[in-house]
Every structure is written in C-alpha cells, then in structure tokens.
Amino acid sequence: MTGVRPRLPHPIVVLRWLRAGVLGMVAVTALLYLVVANRAGEQITAAQRTTKAIQHIRAAYDQAGKADDALDAVSGTGALDLIGTGADFANATARVSSHLTSATEGNAAGERGLSHIQFVQGQLATCVQMANTAVLDGAPALAKAGDALDDAREYDGRDPVPFTGGLRQSLRDLEMLEAAARHDQLRSDWRDPGLLWPLFIGPAAVMLLLVCATGGIVARRFRRYPSPALVVALLATASIGVTMCTTDPLSAAIALPVLAAAGALAYLAYRPRLAEYRFPRS
User: Fold this and answer.
1) Where would you find the membrane-spanning parts of this chain (predicted)?
2) Which of 142, 157, 188 is the last residue of a domain?
3) Number of helices followed by number of strands (H, E) in the chain
4) I need a surface site. Which of 90, 141, 226, 280 has the fewest CB within 10 A?
C-alpha cells in the first residue's frame, strides 16, 4: 500500500498568503504606532513640564547666588544699619520665590518633591528673615544669613546628605531630585525600551521572513527577481519601528503616510506574479 503524497498549495496561493501576511505586519506596525505615540505623548508632555521646572530651579539657584553677592556687597560697605540689605538682595530673593512657585507646577517627584520644594521655600524665608534681623544685630548676624544661603551639605561618612546645606545647595539637591524623576518619566511604561523593542521589532522580523519566503518562491517558481518595492516596503516599515524605539514618536503626518506607502508598495510588489494566474470564483 503506497502512501498518498500531500498536495502542496499552488505557488500563487502561497504568494497570496504571503501578501496578506506582509500587509498585516504593516497594519500591525501602524496600530502599534498609534497606541504608543498617544501614550508616549502624554509622558513626553509631562517630562517637558518637568524640564521647565528644572529650568526654574536652576534660575532660582542663580538668583540665590546674586542674593549672596548682594549681602557681601552690603557687608563691605560697613553701613548695614543705614542701607539695610539693599534692593538687590530683596529683588533676588523675590525671584527665587517666584521660580520655586513655578517649579511646583512641573514637579515630577510626587509628594517627596513637593515636600522638598516646601522645605526650600522655608529655607528662603529663614534666610530673608535672618538678613532683615541682621540690620539690627550687625555684621556677625549678616554673616550667618550668608551662611544660610551658601552652607555646604553635611556628610554621613563619605556620603553627602541631601538637603542639609544652605539654600543654594538645597536647590542643587532639588534639581537632582527632579532630574531623576524626569529620567523615570522618559523610561517608564510606553517609553521603556524593554517594551518598545519587542513590540516594533517583532512585526518587522516577521515581515522580513515573509519577504524572504516571497523572494524564494518568485526566484524558484517564476524565474524572476523579487520586486525591489517589497524591500523598500520592509525598510520603510522597519524604520518607523526603530525610530519609535530610539527617539520621540514621529508626527502622525510623517509616520502614517510612510506606512501607507509601505503597504501600497507591498501590494504592488505581488501584483505582477498574481496577475499571471486567474482562478475562477467558487
């Protein structure tokens, strides 16, 4: 008794399956783009707010330095009881307060960040109060106000303890805290490379296998070279995936037309071979 050899599908049928698979991978990439771009856009917008908050903190640090310089200038005149802390000190500390208020809007460190911002605001108020009191108490009290602005941090062994120094050092610590929070914003959830690479490279890898299978069938069965349009469609689709994994999401005005063009090229790449055979509709 002889075995019955299984009937292999016609190459045209296989090409139709492959075409459907290639177009499906382009569609999957487009769907993933829409989902990830929407979710990642929210995280990027939040990170941009945090960036502005960090810029305000840096500006507050610069203004605190100007306030310190203003106190040094007043101390050098020897006329503290006559001129007080001066307009430069008052203006600089007012700007520090304004920048801290603005930084609160972009706080990304949650309750911890808000607590430290309030702590720094309290330090600022203490510095201003000490400087104003120094007008009556004299130069030694003014020196203490300067120390409150520019003291170094304390150390636990070799490790510095954040928020244990003067106002300027606390502003540096606050900047580092918000920068770390921004880093987490940009690397979490829909911006996490550990999630994005499998999402986008998976469809591109499957599409590559389908394109290679198509090239093999076209070369063996039809004695033709594979269409360059199919390779271009693969590269265009993969480029969108790689871009999504490595940079901020592309604008929809760029990504969607590229994927649409990839789908059109893939469809047209199969058309000459499929047009060689016509099967009656059942």
Assistant:
1) 12-36, 195-218, 225-244, 250-270
2) 188
3) 9, 2
4) 280
